[in-house]
Design a protein that fits this description.
Elements (H helix, E strand, L loop, with lengths): L7 H8 L13 H5 L17 H9 L19 H12 L18 H9 L19 H16 L19 H12 L19 H13 L2 E9 L10 E3 L2 E3 L2 H12 L6 E5 L9 H4 L4 H10 L3 E3 L9 H9 L1 E3 L3 E3 L6 E2 L3 E3 L10 E6 L2 E9 L3 H4 L8 E3 L2 H14 L4 E7 L14 H8 L4 E5 L6 E6 L2 E6 L5 E10 L5 E10 L9 H18 L2 E5 L14 H14 L3 E4 L11 E4 H7 L5 E8 H9 L11 E3 L1 E11 L2 E11 L11 E7 H4 L12 E8 H12 L10 E3 L1
Parallel strand pairs: 1-4, 4-5, 5-8, 11-13, 13-14, 14-16, 20-26, 24-28
Antiparallel strand pairs: 1-17, 2-3, 6-7, 9-12, 10-11, 15-16, 17-18, 19-21, 20-23, 22-26, 22-27, 24-25
Helix pairs in contact: 3-8, 4-5, 4-6, 4-8, 6-7, 9-16, 11-16, 17-21
């Protein structure tokens, strides 16, 4: 039996063989019925239970009669007769391989050789086939399942045991095969309560199970998925020292893979399609990103935290279309967004459809969307006004049950929740891993997102994938679904990097990207300063970031306060050595947050610094006007605890006075309690200033040349 993995070639063949994908060449059953001179066996009456099955197979020359226009439906079925049936049904390839059997009838030797070479039959001894021996039901089932697995090009594992009362009579060597045959609809019990494994089979039964084999069609569905694209339509990233990413290259890859199974491919995304975007998208309200997704033919997506950057109304405008003062009228997404755990605070109903059902080649697949429930902690409070986020697992299970009630057995979850695994799938960790363990067992696939990591693993028989971020990779998931039961019988995934090398960019998408860039290029190309050594966005061992120092300094330069604090998650890029353009500055700070000044006591400043660990993550604030020492440790995977030890003024020797009042600048994301910095909600004398981007640009233009370094503002003990 073949143990090859489910291949691209076999997927394409399966997708094009109509309903009868178990066949190497499909049968058109309509042609059977309309045959000009149909075979009609005189001993198979109209009311005989297998009448239609026998005659359909006979008219396709897949079974023969016994002579004199008779089929012999009640005659016992021999081992060699069933082998011949299987060979003809599967159209097994010719072989030069010889069998070890010395007792073969000449008329069946070629059929047996083909089946033996394919691994479908074994002898009763090393040299004997016993061709004339009557086949028991369990022996027939074993051959049948081997034939089924042969065309799947891989082993099928059973997931349940049928409840026939005589299952204890099934031989140990046949038990797994019986489980598979029943589960996959290849055979029924001999009665409603028995499988009758030891009973002799008859020719009609052989024809019936071959008919079921042919009718148990397998649908091959391909899912092409991305996560955390972040509007990076014209951005190239370096991956392993080679360029990757950008919408035109991502599109070229997606379309190439779609062509391998064009009728049965769905494209999906797992949130953060927009937000923290490249300026060619962001300055046009991220409409170019949605238009590119439309052109690619995406089928379904979900929300990430960044879809809420400008509030619920703007999020809905991008999805459903509408007017914006800066860009005019926009048509919206041509594909549905789903979110099961984002609900209206008043009605408690989802603000978007919780799931969508896509039908592919007669098979229905349900897609449930869930969003990181901690989203209110990491976006500006006004962005989530009027909505709340419920528990992801509860939402998944609620709507999985609803899908099951509709008879949908294949369920995919698009989740904007973090996960990570090694390249071989081992050491899988993250929030989505825990969600998968508690999710309904009918959930087959979960997409991860948010932490921009690699994930390709199986947990609790659920496939979990994540493809880094920014269009630098995508996932290609192959699903094989039993059309009769609706169950996914085989699933596998590959995460593919969108390297530019050897790939021609998609001309249509490339033109769309250029069109968007041309609308804003004059502003983007304006030179605002020089960075002779470049400006890194990497933190040192203490958590201090050169770019963070520059941003915090620009905040004080604009507002004149004593201290400034910058959340590290808001620093989105480095700047290369050379000219600094407006686009460079925008790429560093793409959110357009307003600066907010306020008064805090020294005690409140210390509390603010201790809130760096309040969410369980280590978020080291970038600072200006003071120096800080702290301790921090990882108490369990992904969870940190820390404490501020000393807080000094800029001179590094004078400690902050807990009772004194100090002027402070933060961005409006932090001022609203974002990232868990709730002490800022109690700040006094708040005033709104210009945006953080404008402050950074003004600061660079004033200095003309900038070369920030780490300078001991932050020290980890």
């Amino acid at each position: 039996m073949s143990n090859k993995p489910f291949s691209k070639m076999s997927r394409t063949v399966l997708a094009t063989t109509m309903a009868l994908s178990v066949l190497a060449a499909p049968i058109t059953w309509k042609d059977v019925v309309n045959a000009e001179e149909p075979i009609k066996f005189t001993d198979v009456k109209e009311n005989y239970w297998a009448n239609a099955m026998i005659h359909e197979l006979a008219n396709e020359k897949l079974v023969n009669g016994i002579g004199d226009n008779k089929f012999g439906p009640e005659l016992e079925l021999t081992r060699v007769q069933f082998i011949v049936m299987i060979n003809r049904a599967l159209k097994l390839p010719a072989t030069e391989e010889k069998t070890p059997f010395t007792d073969l009838p000449a008329w069946a030797a070629d059929d047996v050789a083909k089946a033996y070479a394919a691994g479908l039959v074994k002898g009763t001894t090393e040299t004997k086939l016993d061709p004339s021996k009557t086949l028991s039901r369990e022996e027939m089932i074993v051959m049948l399942v081997r034939a089924y697995e042969y065309h799947l090009e891989g082993k099928v594992d059973p997931t349940e045991t049928p409840d026939y009362k005589d299952m204890n009579q099934v031989s140990p060597w046949a038990k797994e095969f019986v489980n598979i045959a029943v589960e996959h609809g290849l055979i029924n019990g001999k009665t409603a309560t028995t499988i009758a494994p030891k009973d002799a089979t008859i020719r009609a039964e052989g024809a019936a199970v071959i008919h079921k084999l042919l009718k148990s069609s397998l649908v091959s569905i391909q899912l092409l998925g991305i996560n955390d694209f972040h509007g990076q339509i014209n951005t190239t990233k370096m991956v392993g020292g080679k360029p990757a990413g950008g919408a035109a290259y991502l599109s070229a890859y997606l379309r190439k893979h779609e062509a391998e199974n064009p009728e049965n491919t769905l494209m999906v995304h797992a949130g953060d399609a927009v937000g923290a975007s490249a300026p060619a998208s962001a300055l046009l309200q991220d409409e170019p990103t949605i238009e590119i997704f439309n052109a690619l033919g995406f089928d379904v997506g979900t929300l990430g935290n960044h879809e809420f950057d400008e509030g619920v109304d703007e999020m809905k405008r991008l999805i459903f279309g509408g007017e914006h003062e800066a860009t005019g009228d926009f048509g919206g997404a041509d594909f549905p967004y789903v979110a099961a755990n984002v609900v209206d605070e008043k009605t408690k109903r989802p603000i978007l459809e919780p799931y969508v059902v896509q039908e592919v080649d007669g098979v229905k697949v349900g897609f449930i969307g869930v969003v990181y429930s901690d989203t209110p902690d990491i976006v500006i409070p006004s962005g989530v006004k009027g909505i709340s986020f419920t528990d992801e697992t509860e939402a998944i299970n609620k709507y999985a049950a609803e899908l099951k009630d509709k008879g949908i057995e294949s369920i995919v979850v698009l989740a904007h929740n973090p996960a990570y695994s090694d390249a071989d799938g081992k050491n899988a960790v993250g929030e989505l891993i825990d969600i998968a363990k508690n999710a309904d067992d009918e959930v087959d696939v979960l997409y991860a997102g948010h932490n921009h990591a690699f994930t390709n693993t199986t947990v609790d028989n659920k496939l979990i994938v994540q493809s880094y971020a920014s269009g630098t990779a995508f996932s290609d998931i192959d699903l094989l679904i039993n059309k009769k039961t609706g169950d996914i019988v085989k699933k596998s995934a590959e995460v593919i990097t969108t390297f530019h090398e050897g790939m021609k960019p998609d001309a249509e998408i490339e033109a769309m990207v250029k069109g968007a860039y041309d609308k804003v290029k004059d502003q983007l190309n304006k030179v605002i300063g020089q960075a002779p050594n470049g400006i890194s966005d990497d933190a040192n061992e203490h958590g201090e970031v050169p770019m963070g120092n520059l941003i915090a300094d620009s905040m004080i330069a604009q507002t004149g306060t004593e201290f400034a604090f910058m959340n590290p998650g808001g620093i989105r890029s480095a700047i290369d050595a050379g000219d600094i353009t407006w686009e460079d500055a925008f790429t560093v700070q793409p959110f357009g947050n307003d600066l907010v000044t306020m008064d805090l006591t020294g005690a409140q400043v210390i509390e603010l610094l201790n809130q760096q660990w309040v969410t369980g993550r280590e978020k080291i604030l970038q600072i200006a006007g003071l120096k800080v020492t702290y301790t921090s440790k990882e108490v369990e995977p992904g969870k940190f605890e820390g404490q501020v030890k000393d807080v000094f003024l800029a001179d590094g020797t004078t400690k902050i006075d807990p009772n004194a009042t100090y002027s402070v600048t933060v961005n409006n994301f932090m001022a609203g309690g974002g990232d868990g910095y709730t002490v800022l909600l109690d700040g006094a004398n708040k005033q709104v200033d210009i945006t953080d981007l404008d402050a950074l640009i003004k600061h660079i233009e004033t200095l003309k040349t900038v070369d920030p370094q780490t300078e001991g503002r932050i020290t980890k003990e």
